[in-house]
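Exercise 7 asks you to align residues with tokens for two separate proteins.
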Amino acid sequence: MIVFFDIDGTIISDDDKHVVPESAVNAIRTARKNGHLMYINTGRTIMNVEPDLRNIGFDGYVCGCGTYIECDGKVLLNRTVPKPLCREIARLVYECDMTPVYERSDSFFIDKRIREIGGFPALKALFKTQGKDISRDISEEDFGFDKMVAWYDEKSDLEKFKRGIEKEFDYIDRGYGFCELAVKGFSKGTGIEQVCRHHNIPISETIAIGDSLNDLPMLEAAAHSVAMGNSTEGLKEISSFVTKDLYDDGIEYALSHFDLI
């Protein structure tokens, strides 16, 4: 079996504590020792997968909503958005009065001209404690991104933003005034397909575990879809199995349910 794990809300708590349950670490390591392949599958870019997560032990990573794929230490895909399009999107975001974080496999960029709304101040503070540089600005010559997230509020022109990005990107509403953009043709689901081709393993041997609506492509692509107990209700309804909450040993419970540990 190949198991694909989302990060936030699945392996690590999606709150101020950012806890990785010891039971999850032990379960993943045990399943791997038992001959199963363990993969991260996240909207985060690869540089945003912290060492403590990597140290759990994974066979590879699908990052940036399928735009980056690494298997057994080898990079199979690293898809970036063309720079002229990056500039165009940055201009649109500014016009629509939203707060973006532009994510690349090797860097983050922000727009220092813009209001800091929603969860952006908290994210910036978290990144500072983690030693991540979030000071780079879109005015820099090498500005570019693989994917992006943005916060919006009642002053933002969200409809203009959606119209402006619809030809090149898929819009993912994360709720609470927060959205994510993924390049069309790439997703957590396409990442699963490519990893399976690399290992020559059929889709029927895949399990995907997630907690939010941006995990939907991943859960739809896998043969067995697992929603965390702390998932949004919409995700539970379409999943073939609902495990326990993250804090209630949900990962261990799911891997045990499928006889991987």
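Second protein for Exercise 7:
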Amino acid sequence: MEIFEVNILGCGSAKPTLRHLPSSQIVNIRGKYYMIDCGEGAQIQMQKMNLPMARIGHIFISHNHGDHVFGLPGLISTMALLGRTADLHIHGPQQLQEYLDNVIRIYCEGIAFQIIFHPIDTRVHNIIFKDRSVSVWSIPLQHRIPCSGFLFRETPPLPHIRREMIDAFNIPFSQINNIKAGASWTTEDGTVIPHERLVTPAEKARSYAYCSDTIYLPCITQILQDVTLLYHEATYPDDLQMRAQETLHSTASQAATIARDSHVEKLCIGHFSARVKEEELLLAEATAIFPQTRLAFEGLNIKL
């Protein structure tokens, strides 16, 4: 199967700690690199994980809080130092525009590449980017300021043509892609070989959803149905549920409930509060509801 993997650069919340960096991830889909959020320390962690920052074409920012954007000025500056000339596309809520304009004006004037900002309507579930490998959708979240999650859906792969069918019916190489795309094959004597007999089914298309930061929001389960991997914030344990509600964050149990009700395959929880000294407590609370849960940590690579 083609590459589809999620790399965790940071999974802490607002206050950096000795255990965790603020939020940032790199999604690698078929060799194309997409960044989600860019907290402090993202560049250092990318170097530790041997992830090529020069190959990032699109950055998706969930919201304009410092722990999700303070790494952007340094990243853009480093890209310029490395001689980047390709356009850099940044997607995020409209409120991000002023911050980006100031970053470029103060720190990045005269850079050799263009930064193109794409505003996201955080109130709706819309497609915000698409190429041959993936489509990216917004997920409306509820936080203290406009905030969006992101849903990456792999372009469904084509089925595999059976080698024995190529040999049996002398199918030329030029027709293989047509058959993969759904065509049948007609032999020299006029016999039609149906498409279904010529191929084996394609692998199931994979998907990844990122939901941080948000209050417990059951309505998003309609969007998240059957995704391969869900990353959902679990800022607090259950005994701090009132704090989570006040700050518009989620608990580990709430994240697990979203995963269970969305019928996702796997859940990864992160965005841990600095108050939480032992994340195993969060894991225990989540797995009691959704057993296929794991903790995020810096350097984690998840292959879908």
